[in-house]
């Protein structure tokens, strides 16, 4: 599919249609995924595998190639046509926060949270919260659960007006 046409259709499509467009571009994508509108799957989307129940938020970029080869092509005789690629694998039950960049050859394990603005340059093991530049594991999912449990409000799935009442009651104490 033409990249320009794909980008136009992607920006106009709803969630299910976006997922179908991704699949047509070659991304392998599991079930029950949320992929926000402003996600960039790069020039080789067919090198990306997304598991089940994955949320990819705004501004996330997947890079499946090493752009630095551009320099080597011009300064090394044996690299005139050089390219370097790496597949990206995202496991099941993963949240990737806003403006994260996932680099070539990376695997993000199952049950992972990737913090906003991270640059994922190395594999992230299962059951890990990772963030930073470069992204590094900072805690386990169990530690994340224990640290957040006292502050949880059960508002997922609520209508906006009901959620607002709960938030105003509990946040502005």
Subunit organisation of the chains: single chain
Strand order of the largest sheet: 2-4-7-10-12-13
Could you tell me the radius of gyration in angstroms?
Answer: 19 Å
Note the gap between the termini: 53 Å
Shape: elongated
E-strand count:
13
Order of helices and strands: HHEEEEEHEEEEEEEEHH
What portion of residues is helical? 25-40%
Biggest beta-sheet profile: 6 strands, mixed
Helix run count? 5
Low-confidence stretches: none
Structural class: alpha/beta
Output mean pLDDT.
89
- The proportion of strand residues reads 15-25%
What labels would you give this structure?
173 residues
List the helices and strands and how they pair.
Blueprint: H1 3-12, H2 15-25, E1 28-29, E2 34-35, E3 48-50, E4 54-56, E5 61-62, H3 69-75, E6 88-90, E7 94-96, E8 101-102, E9 107-108, E10 112-114, E11 119-120, E12 128-131, E13 136-140, H4 141-148, H5 160-171
Parallel strand pairs: 1-3, 2-4, 3-6, 4-7, 5-8, 6-9, 7-10, 8-11, 10-12
Antiparallel strand pairs: 12-13
Helix pairs in contact: 1-2
């Amino acid at each position: 599919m033409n990249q320009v046409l794909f980008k136009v259709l992607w920006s106009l499509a709803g969630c299910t249609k976006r997922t179908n467009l991704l699949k047509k571009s070659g991304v392998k994508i599991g079930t029950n995924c949320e992929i926000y509108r402003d996600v960039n799957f790069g020039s080789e989307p067919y090198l990306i595998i997304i598991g089940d129940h994955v949320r990819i938020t705004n501004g996330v970029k997947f890079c499946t190639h090493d752009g630095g080869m551009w320099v080597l092509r011009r300064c090394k005789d044996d690299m005139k046509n050089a390219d370097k690629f790496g597949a990206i694998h995202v496991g099941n039950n993963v949240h990737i926060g806003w403006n994260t960049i996932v680099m070539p050859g990376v695997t993000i394990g199952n049950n992972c949270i990737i913090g906003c603005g991270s640059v994922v340059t190395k594999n992230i093991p299962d059951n890990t919260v990772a963030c930073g530049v470069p992204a590094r594991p900072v805690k386990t999912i169990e530690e994340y659960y224990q640290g957040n449990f006292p502050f949880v409000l059960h508002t997922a799935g609520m209508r906006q007006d009901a959620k607002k009442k709960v938030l105003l009651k509990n946040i502005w104490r």
